Amino acid sequence: MGNGGNSTDDTITGYNQNMCGGFVRKDGWDIPGNDILSSPVQQPDYGSCCSKCQATSECIAFTYSPSSQRCSLKTSMRNGGNSTGDTITGYHFQNMCDGLVRKDGWDIPGNDILSSPVQQPDYASCCSKCQATPECIAFTYSPSSQRCSLKTSMHNGGNSTGDTITGYRFLPLRASLIDIHPNAKWSKNGITIAGGNGQGSGINQLSKPCGLYVDDDQTIYVADQSNHRVVEWKWNATSGQVVAGGNGQGIGDHQLNNPYDVIIDKETDSLLVCDDSNKRVVRWPRRNGTSGETISSNISCVGLTMDENGSLYVSDNKINEVRRYLRGESQGTVIAGGNEYGNRLNQLAFPQYLFVDRDHSVYVSEWTNPRVMKWTEGAKEGIIVAGDQGQGNGLTQLTNTQGVVVDQLGTVYVADFLNDRIMRWSRGAKEGSIIVGGNGQGNQSNQLNRPVGLSFDRHGNLYVVEWENHRVQKFNIESNK
């Protein structure tokens, strides 16, 4: 069900493959673009529109409006989303696969699990093979050749010159691919994987690093705040590579000014950077980029994340709100806070870092309020999921929360900045537990010094950015039972 989403009303999605000759019906869903015909045609009912799609070889989906009787044939389910009207989508079940996102016209060179592609009769069969292979993150399929290639990563993906389709497992950004047990334990001693060579501007150094992004192959991207750059560190590398900024502090398109966070947009193969002091979000080409493009301005951005539809979520710590920007949108919609500075359930106080789960619930850390809030989609106020028992170092308390990630059970992991520790809060818990740090402020491998950025990799290992130690540490998961 690539790009499927929650309905805004009482819409029910059906999964009967016999409905209209092998097509699945999805009410309250629309697909902008991807049209086969230059304009919609008139059809008296859903079944007639479906029949027209069946008779058109390149048609894998269609949209139909009962009120206008407009029937649009589609080459792809790409960019589908909730309809504001009565639009219905029908799609061929052989072209979909539940749990993976479909990306037409996209190929992934390399990253192969098998030594050579295998033959599969359709996209869904290739998808099923990927689902049955634990290390498979994505796959590519060519309908013309029926070649199915299983992949360990989306890395190096790009537009296809042929009919190749990519399917990939969607993970919330910074989440783990493996399920994490409630009693999972991580190594008490971290491994320094970036920086750790003192504060400085050398290519093996960091200066006041903040947010990070961990790619499928464990390459990390670090917002190196005081060096006004984003640095890429390959796994096991002893030095990094500047991939954005690094041209001095400034407001030019080729510069950054105190970047706080970075993520990768795989759809455009670009970096998205919170350029805080320039009050903008910048899109920077991931490969050989020399300058960035401002995609959102007049925003004091601290944290960034993205959902499976490509919608961007940004925290603004000056006007105390979180906005969601649909792909291509410039204004955005307030989805958390926006009711001035404060500690009520409908307010935020200097929102920091963000996590968005599969249900589009947004988790927000706050600098001043000692808590983490969860805002479900469409909510007018948040739910406290960690802290809010005053500032302090007790297990019920937090002080200046920073990076936040959430596992498949809804357990919250948060960087407790002034307490130099990472805390785990189970769903509904009244107190947390220390999983990393908590051994006093310091630079030993079992200590943290002002943790900020936080992320899992696909294997459940935990990455922590330390603002005062100018390093990134990796804490391996040791027990997951």
UniProtKB/TrEMBL annotation:
Q: Name one GO biological process term.
A: proteolysis
UniProt keyword Repeat, yes or no: yes
- Lipid metabolism as UniProt keyword: no
Where the NHL repeats fall, as residue ranges, is 447-478
InterPro entries cross-referenced by the UniProt entry: 6-blade_b-propeller_TolB-like (IPR011042), Apple (IPR000177), NHL_repeat (IPR001258), Pan_app (IPR003609), TRIM-NHL_E3_ligases (IPR050952)
- UniProt superkingdom: Eukaryota
- Give any Gene Ontology cellular component: extracellular region
> Keywords for this entry?
Disulfide bond, Repeat
Could you tell me one molecular function GO term of this UniProt entry?
zinc ion binding
Tell me the ranges covered by the Apple domain, including all copies.
20-97
PANTHER family, per this entry?
E3 UBIQUITIN-PROTEIN LIGASE NHLRC1-RELATED, PROTEIN LIN-41
> What is the protein named?
Apple domain-containing protein
